[in-house]
Amino acid sequence: MQVADAAGNDLRVAQRVLVAADKFKGSLTAVQVAERVTTGLRRVVPGLDVESLPVADGGDGTVDAAVAAGFERRAVRVAGPLGHEVTAAFAVRGDTAVVEMAEASGLQRLPAGVLAPLTASTYGSGELLRAALDAGARTIVFGVGGSATTDGGAGMLSALGARLLDAEGEPVPPGGGGLAELARADLSGLDPRLSSVDLVLASDVDNPLTGPKGAPAVYGPQKGASPDDVAGLDAALAHYAKVLEETFGTRAAEYAASPGAGAAGGIGYGALVLGARFRPGIEVMLDVLGFAPALERASLVITGEGSLDRQTLHGKAPAGVAAAARAAGKEVIAVCGRLALPPETLGRAGIRRAYPLTEVEPDVAKCIADAGPILERVAENIARDFLA
User: NCBIfam families from the entry (predicted)?
Assistant: First the structure.
């Protein structure tokens, strides 16, 4: 790579590549993406200075990204979405914790082939938050996404001390469907430590809790909800918010309409009730992971994810990385499994060029099965085009 001095003379500068990519879902973790890209680059440019900073946007893989950046992984036994016990992890560094709700309440925690749109609960996510408080966290980054649940965070609130009761004074059944029976909400028993912690809701979606753009309508079908289930869940969550309004005041209604309330089956709403502040997930994670100083050290940035498409432009990790890099005047290249964006759209997003695996191997099934070796070959092409 070359730059010119004040007299117009070309000067050689040290090349340092920052690999800040998200996972290739179903094929490679973000850590593995960074490893494979590094291997391919160094095959063409031996000894190349490469810094790896796996990133995530708050969804699944967020804890792994934090651990790769130097956080300590902590494992704890919590309730899975159907109540079965699972081992989930969160990450800690100093008094900051990164909690990923999918670790406890994600689709991957359901038994194979089982979907439970009406009964899946976020109780285990509340247990993870409590474990972070027990670890001494004063700031908790709560990454939400990839959930199996549509319970508005009711299970999470219950795990943290809330009592959600039916007309007989008994706890309502778990899951979004059970909220139709909610008669009274008692939040007086919430863990008092929540009042002194900075809880950050990190999400890549800004949907409200209910309505045409709410959690049940937009994301319920992905979790197995039929049209009747979607209607029932939407009504149950609206009722839930109304009952909380009677207990919590008008803020409960404001939170239900707020950006991020519908994230991860409405757990965003529960987090807002707990006092969380909503921030786009990738912005939060770049701050937490130390992206700014790593970016300053880099001469080229490589980002990416499994599919670069329209969704990428709406708060996904590559878009966040590219925006920050462009603001710093750094060139950005993207790697991906599948590319569904034209060059001009990539350019507007701050990405100079994208390299899909299908450019090397047209067979999509092979790209998924052999993503690692193919990504190394893609990285070799990047090195020849931009570094050699």
Answer: glycerate kinase
